[in-house]
Design a protein that fits this description.
- There is one protein chain.
- By secondary structure, this protein is α/β, with parallel strands linked by helices.
- It has two domains: 264 residues, Aldolase class I (TIM Barrel); 69 residues, Non-ribosomal Peptide Synthetase Peptidyl Carrier Protein, Chain A (Orthogonal Bundle).
- The strands form two sheets. An eight-stranded parallel β-sheet has the order 3-10-9-8-7-6-5-4. It has a two-stranded antiparallel sheet with strand order 1-2.
- Helix 1 packs across helix 10, helix 8 packs parallel to helix 9 and helix 12 packs antiparallel against helix 15.
């Protein structure tokens, strides 16, 4: 494993000189006392990062997966619904649990509670742009008070021996891009890695992510820096590594309904070649497996309600997507899902000999 002072940009230069350009990225890193094999991470996303989603991400090559964002207040005040978000399986490791909140004392208690589940990492969210989070001074709103930013990290670090990491945005808006100062503060307070989503809260998910912010942050902190924003394929990941020198890349929305992205990015970084997309058999099998896992956890009725959203993500970019979405939003049983997929395939696809849609 490389030390935390590893400079990916410099290694890329050396690899290019040696004509090994595509073998220089997928090298892993160290976060505190955690050795990470690989450096393509699966972002935590509220309502999406369920155990099934995390297992699929790991299966296809994500180096670390994360829980959904968990309220520190919900944990501290013993909400069962919040506590349930901490559950994970051993085969999901390495796994991080992400917390949000704006009260250092409450965060201290929440981190201690979270530690009972023994995650590999506890991550603090200082980047969520959602109104119901920021109106309580959580998420990206923390960046408006860098004294609070420091206090929250210090409280978390003091509570446990588990590595504490943070996820930032570039700032609240374009007039208050504080990522550099905030990153340095987090490092000084004891954070072992920093993820930067290179957009401000005001921009939400619009426009291009400013990768120059990631590069600047990498140049001023010594802990690993994870880049996030606008990486949707292997070429994007390679370019982010090269342009920013970041230690790892985090994939968020591009993995929704498409966990194969981790396999594709890792393959591209290792070989410089693009893999073909998954076959329709692969897609169908994974959708049905996802549904069965949800049924095991929630029962058929609730599971199929949850699958309605997942079907929309799995179908994104496929022909005839509107029809499959329309039917999916009416399904109530596993048999309904099987019928929808069977009819969709017969109606929309003529298969090549290798099972891939034409």
């Amino acid at each position: 494993m490389l030390p935390v002072t590893f400079n990916a940009s410099r290694l890329n230069d050396l690899c290019r000189i040696a004509k090994l350009e595509f073998f220089c990225y997928n090298v892993g890193m160290r976060i505190g006392n955690l050795n990470v094999k690989g450096n393509i991470l699966c972002a935590p996303m509220a309502g999406i990062s369920t155990p099934a989603y995390r297992l699929f991400a790991h299966r296809f090559g994500a180096a670390i997966v994360y829980s959904e964002m968990v309220s520190s207040h919900g944990l501290a005040y013993k909400s069962k619904k919040t506590n349930d978000l901490l559950d994970f399986l051993e085969i999901e490791r390495p796994l991080g649990i992400q917390l949000f909140g704006a009260d250092p004392e409450v965060m201290y208690r929440a981190v201690q509670i979270t530690a009972q589940w023994k995650p590999d990492i506890i991550d603090l969210n200082f980047g969520c742009p959602v109104k119901k989070v920021v109106k309580k001074n959580g998420g990206a709103a923390v960046l408006k008070d860098l004294g609070l930013t420091r206090a929250l990290v210090e409280a978390a670090v003091a509570a446990v021996d588990i590595p504490i990491t943070v996820k930032l945005r570039s700032g609240w808006d374009e007039t208050a891009k504080v990522f550099a100062e905030a990153g340095k503060i987090c490092e000084e307070a004891g954070a072992k890695a920093i993820t930067l989503h290179a957009r401000t809260r005001a921009r939400q998910f619009s426009g291009r992510a400013c990768w120059a912010d990631i590069k600047q942050l990498k140049e001023i902190v010594s802990v690993p820096v994870v880049g996030n924003g606008d990486v949707t394929c292997g070429e994007d990941a390679a370019r982010m590594f090269s342009e920013t020198g970041c230690d790892a890349v985090m994939i968020g929305r591009a993995a929704m309904g498409y966990p194969w992205i981790f396999r594709e990015i890792n393959h591209y970084l290792d070989t410089g070649a693009n893999l073909p997309p998954p076959t329709m058999d692969e897609r169908t099998d994974l959708i049905l497996e996802h549904a069965r896992m949800l049924i095991d956890s929630f029962g058929e009725s609730r599971a199929m309600f949850k699958m309605r959203h997942h079907i929309a993500w799995y179908a994104k970019g496929l022909p005839g997507v509107a029809r499959i979405r329309k039917r999916a939003y009416k399904m109530t049983t596993y048999a309904d899902l099987e019928e929808i997929l069977r009819d969709y395939r017969q109606t929309n696809f003529e298969e090549n000999s290798d099972g891939r849609p034409q």
